[in-house]
DYW domain-containing protein
Amino acid sequence: MYAHCDSPGDAKAAFDALEQRNLYSWTGLVAAFAISGQSKETLRALERMRQDGVRPDAVTFITALGSCGDPESLRDGIRIHQMVVDSRLEIDPKVSNALLNMYKKCGSLSHAKRVFAKMERTRNVISWSIMAGAHALHGNVWEALRHFRFMLLLGIKATKSAMVTILSACSSPALVQDGRMIHSCIALSGFESELLVANAVMTMYGRCGAVEEARKVFDAMDEALRDVVSWNIMLSTYVHNDRGKDAIQLYQRMQLRPDKVTYVSLLSACSSAEDVGLGRVLHKQIVNDELEKNVIVGNALVSMYAKCGSHTEARAVFDKMEQRSIISWTTIISAYVRRRLVAEACHLFQQMLELEKNGSSQRVKPDALAFVTILNACADVSALEQGKMVSEQAASCGLSSDKAVGTAVVNLYGKCGEIEEARRIFDAVCSRPDVQLWNAMIAVYAQFGQSHEALKLFWRMEMEGVRPDSFSFVSILLACSHTGLEDQGKSYFTSMTTEYRNVTRTIQHFGCVADLLGRGGRLKEAEEFLEKLPVKPDAVAWTSLLAACRNHRDLKRAKEVANKLLRLEPRCATGYVALSNIYAELQKWHAVAKVRKFMAEQGVKKERGVSTIEIGKYMHDFATGDDAHPRNREIREELAKLHSQMKECGYVPDTKMVLHFVDEQEKERLLFSHSERLAIALGLISTPLGTPLRVTKNLRVCSDCHTATKLISKIAGRKIVVRDPTRFHLFKDGKCSCQDYW
C-alpha cells in the first residue's frame, strides 16, 4: 500500500517491522523506492535482499529497473543489469525489454543496442518498438525508420507509444513521406481517433511543412475531443510556416480558454502579419488572464511590439517585467538596433552587463545565443562600431572560440564591407569543421562579387571534409550570378542532383539560377526555366527576372513578367512600379498615370527609398529628396561641391533613371537628391578624412548613383560600402567591387 502511495519511508518502516521477509515483501520494498525514482535506495534494497538470502526474480528486477529514468541514474541501472546477468535472467524477454527501456530513458543508446543484439531469438513487438523509439529519441531518425520498416516486413505491429515517438522524429520536409507512412500505420491500427495520437500526427505534419495535411487531421478530430493542445499545435503550425493570418483566423473559431502557449503562438502570428492592433487586444486579454508576469509570454509581447515597429510599447512591456531572462534583454536590444537607435541599444547592453557584474538579483548571464542575436542585428543595419563593442564583450565572456559567435562576427564584418577582417576572424576560428562558419565566409565573398575567392573557399571546404548544405549552394550560385559565371553556376546547380544528393533543391536555388541567366542576358532561357519548374516560382524569382529584363532593355518581356508577378501577388508594389517605369521609358505617360491611379485605388504604396549611415553611436536615415536633417544645409553644400568636381572628371548625369515627365534640369536635381548621396554627404562632413563610409539602402542602387559613388570615392579618397537588397558594393579609388555587373 505504502509503495503505491509514493511513501517509501513508511514502506521501509513497515518492512523493517516484519519478523519474516520473503520474496514478495522484498519486492514490495523495491517497488516503494522504484516508484518514487530513488535508484540508489532501490539498488541498496536489492543488495540487502541478496545478503538476506532471498533471490530476486524477474518481477523484482523489472520493478527495480523502473527506478532508473534519467542519465544521472545510468550507473545504478548498469549495476542492476549486472545483477540480472548474475541471476541468469537476461534471457527472459520481459526482463530484457525492461533493460532496453531503462537504457532508452537513461540516454545510453550503445547499452540498449548491446542488449537488443543479444535478444535475436526473443525479440517481440515491445523490443522492436522500444529500440525504434530509442533511436528516434537520440536523433537517429534514419535508424529509427529502418527499425520501423523492418518490423513491418516481419509482420510486427508497432506499439502506439513507439509510433508516436518515431513520428516526433519526423521533423523536416525531407521526412514527410516517412511521416505519412507512419500515419497510415496508425490509421490501420485504429489509434487515429485518440487525442494524444492525433496531436502527434498534426505536430509531425506541421514540422514537415505539410500545413494542409495538418489541417485535415485537425478538422477530422471530433470537436469535443480537441483540447487546447490541439488548437496550439495547429496555430503554431501556421505560425512556423509563415501563415500568420491563417493562425489569426483559426483563433477566432477557438472556443476554449487560451493558455500561455496559445498566446505565444498568436503574438508570433501578429508579428508576421504586422497586426499590432490584434497584438494590443491580445495584450489586454493576457493581463485579464493574469499571464503578463510569465517570462515567456512577456518575451513574446516584447518581440511582437518590436517586430511590428513599436519599440516604445516593447520597452514599456520590458520595463514592467518583474523577471527578465536573457531572451528578454536580447529581444529589446535587437529591437532598438533594428530601429537604428544604436545609442539606446548600447546603453541597454551595458546595463545588462552591469547587472551581471554587480551580482544583482535581476542579473542575467549573456550566453552565446544572446551575442549571436545582437551581432546579427548589428550586421543587418551595418552598425559596425556597436557590433565591435558586442564582439569584444563576447570575447571577455570567454566566447571568442565559440563557433556560432565566430560565425556572427564574420557575418558582421562581411556585411559592413570589412572583408579582410572577416577572413582574419574566419581563419582564427576555423579549427574544426562547421558548415555554418564556412557558409558565412563564402557568402561574404559572394555578396561582394569576389566569386573566385568564394569558389576557392567552397573547394577547400570540401577538401577538409565539410559537407556543403543548402545555404552553401545558395551562396555559390549567387557568386556565379554576380560575376557572370553562367555555365559554372549551372554546373554547380546540376551537381546538387548528382554529387550532393543529400541537399534538396529549393525555390531559393531555382531563383538563383533564374537570376544567373537573367543577369547574363539569357532572358528567354530564364523565363522558360521558371515556367518548367516542378514547384511554383515565388515572387522573388519573378522579380529578379523582371529586373534583368529592364537592365537588358527587353521592355516587352518585362511587361509580360510584371503581369505574371501581379497575377501571383496582386498587391505587389514591385510589379506595379515596374509596369509604371516601363511605360515611362516608352514615354507612355497616360499609361503611367493609369497604373499609379490604380495603385492608389487599391491602396498599394510604392516603397520609399531610404538609406542609412552609422555615425558614431547613431544611425541616420535619409529618404529621397529628404531635407529634414539638422545638417541639411551643410549636406547640400557638400553635394553641390561634389557635383562640380564630378563634372570636371567627366560625369554626365544619366537622366533616363528619372521616370517622371519633367525637364532635364529637374531630372538632374532629382538625381542629386537620391537617398544614398545624402547619406554619403553626411558621412563625408561628419568623419575624419580617410574614414570608411557604410551605407545601407532598402532599394536597388540606380546606375547613376553607382557611377556617382565611384567618382566620389576617388575625389574624397574614401572607401564607401553601399549595401542594397541585391548585393554589396565596395567603392574605392573610382572603382566598384561589382565591376559594373550587378
The chain has a mean pLDDT of 87. The beta strands are 610-615, 618-623, 693-697, 720-723, 728-732, 735-736. Residues 426 and 620 are 30 Å apart (CA to CA).
